Amino acid sequence: MNSPRRTTLRIAGDTPRRRGEDRGRQARAGITRAWRVYEELFETVAAGNGRTLDVPALALRTVHATRAWAPELVEEMEGVAEGAGTPFWTIAALNARTEILAEAGAPRTGECSTLVRTGPRTTGGQCWDWHRELADAWHLQTVTGDVRGFAGITEHGILAKIGVNEAGVGVLFNILGHADDAATGVPVHLVARQVLGTAGSFAEAVGMLTGAPVSASTVITVVTADRAASVELAPGGSAVIAPDDRGWLVRTNHFLAPALAAGELRGHREPETYDRHRLLTARALGHDGETPDADALVGLLTAHREDGAEVCCHAPAEGRLGSRWATLATVAVDPAERRLLVHDGGPCSAGRETWTPLTAPRG
Predict the structure, then answer these.
(1) DSSP states of 37-96 as a string?
(2) Residue extents of the structural domains in the chain
(3) What is the predicted pLDDT for the residue at 2?
(4) How confident is the prediction for the chain on average, in pLDDT?
(5) Which of 90, 194, 205, 237 is the 20 to 30 A CA-CA neighbour of 160?
(6) How many Å apart are CA 58 and CA 215, to the nearest integer?
(7) 27 in helix, strand or coil?
(8) Strand ranges (E), the chain
(9) How far apart are CA 363 and CA 358, in angstroms?
(10) Which pLDDT score, from 0 to 100, does residue 265 have?
């Protein structure tokens, strides 16, 4: 069952600002808690790499890029700040946390593994791994009032992350690392938000992603009822990765496109991403049947160090902020039903009674 602390925000509003205000009001306490952790995380990571950060300036730099690409996203963030009673730059910094951490030189050990199987009915899902100190800083959500209604999970104050919309367009999320990553472009979380709130088809989603002027690297896997592809994004360009000849997409935290892999940063720093990719690829190839349901997905994703790779990530009991990684959520997506199943924690603790269903509302 859903953890007592996990909430579902039902966000609505007929303008971006009103949707933002609604989010800010509902998530006010959570935004305050999340910001305290992120403020410390930015400082800790930067100091550990001998760097100093001007977080307000970096955040506002990404706002400038976002305003030129999708000004309605800036209006929505402004509404969040008003509703939460917090300075606008802090909301911008939360939404640009990936870009700011790239400027800080953050390692990303243990972050996110994704499996998708295409076919007559595409299904898939992922582990979402992040800092254990932020385990209470995320929520479930449904959002209406934009072009498309959508449902998913995200962190307090961040407009979107993983989800599926009313058109059956879903997005799954893995961070990458490139030598040119910086905080100058549109934040990748806002790009995901734009896809969920507006894309009406697979082609529209992929086109939106490949055209986004990002400055930090990620791979967003687009899933619809009968199609899927991973869109690798980096400061210097993008690439679309199709499923293999059996219909599988396996993603961890390194580039697969050769042109983008030439600037690979993440895999060189933390080669465990290759171990997870190899293990999950082997499991996928050994899977019987066309479309894994949530239970089958859990079986595929449940892997620890003794299995050869830590797909299901558990934080050590001790350690400083920035070093304690954990799988905070396990997500399964069924785009044909416009539905997500969310488990609060890693796949090894998931069962039939632990999934929370979310269906994308009509916009």
Answers:
(1) HHHHHHHHHHHHTT----HHHHHHHHHHHHHHH-HHHHHHHHHHHHHHTS-HHHHHHHHT
(2) 8-103, 108-359
(3) 40
(4) 94
(5) 237
(6) 12
(7) coil
(8) 8-11, 113-117, 123-131, 138-143, 150-155, 162-165, 170-175, 218-223, 228-234, 237-241, 248-251, 325-334, 339-343, 356-359
(9) 15
(10) 80
Token pair 């592809």 is found at 229
Phi, psi of 9 (to 5 degrees): -90, 125
Within the chain, which residues score under 70 in pLDDT?
1-5, 107-110, 266
In the DSSP assignment, the letter for residue 178 is B
* Distance, CA of 106 to CA of 123 (rounded, Å): 32
Report the SS3 class of residue 160: coil
Tokens of 201: 């088809």
Place of tokens 């307000």: 56
Dihedral (Cα; 79, 80, 84, 85), 10-degree rounding: -50
Which of 264, 333, 245 has its CA nearest to residue 292? 333
Supply the pLDDT for residue 108. Answer: 57
pTM: 0.96
Question: d(Cα 153, Cα 162) in Å, to the nearest integer?
Answer: 6
Alpha-carbon distance 359 to 254, whole Å?
31
The pLDDT score that the predictor gives to residue 219 is 97
